[in-house]
């Protein structure tokens, strides 16, 4: 029985680890160009399009999980101009949810 529990624990840890890695990879592929590896938005595109600094806990606190999800699902518009494309064709809902979790890690926990 003990052995079984240990196995279950390791399996669960393995799932968590790969989950986090995939989200980071997807973020690097799809988001980094604008939002920057650390979410600061300090890239050429980020500055051009006016990305906020998502490594700032105050800015993270001002946005809800659903909003982060929606930004990826539907894209973001500023005054009728699309500043961020939707990712609903490139990413599954589960991948988007995992990126929401990863996105939250960009700001240090208070
Ligand atoms: C072409 C540049 C670009 C790319 C690529 C991009 N974004 Fe954005 N994103 C923006 C801009 C510009 C804004 C609006 C300003 C802001 O809120 O930083 C924005 C806004 C957001 C917001 C806030 C939405 C809101 O309602 O306030 C989130 C969350 C976000 N992006 C996440 C992501 C994630 C996650 C990815 C990758 C899947 C991504 N972005 C890819 C440019 C981009």
Q: What is the class in the CATH system? A: Mainly Alpha
Which geometry do the CA atoms define?
elongated
Largest sheet: 2 strands, antiparallel
The structural class is: mainly alpha
- What is the tally of helical segments? 6
Order of helices and strands: HHHHHEEH
Low-confidence stretches: none
Strand content range: 5-15%
CATH-defined fold name: Cytochrome Bc1 Complex, Chain D, domain 2
Number of strand elements: 2
Verbal overview:
The chain is mostly helical and 110 residues long. The protein has a single domain (2-104), classed as Cytochrome Bc1 Complex, Chain D, domain 2, CATH 1.10.760.10. The protein has 6 helices and 2 strands, in the order αααααββα. Strands 1-2 form a two-stranded antiparallel sheet. Helix 1 (2-30) crosses helix 6 (93-104) and helix 5 crosses helix 6 (93-104). The protein is elongated and about 60 Å long. The model has no long low-confidence stretch (mean pLDDT 90). It binds heme C (HEC).
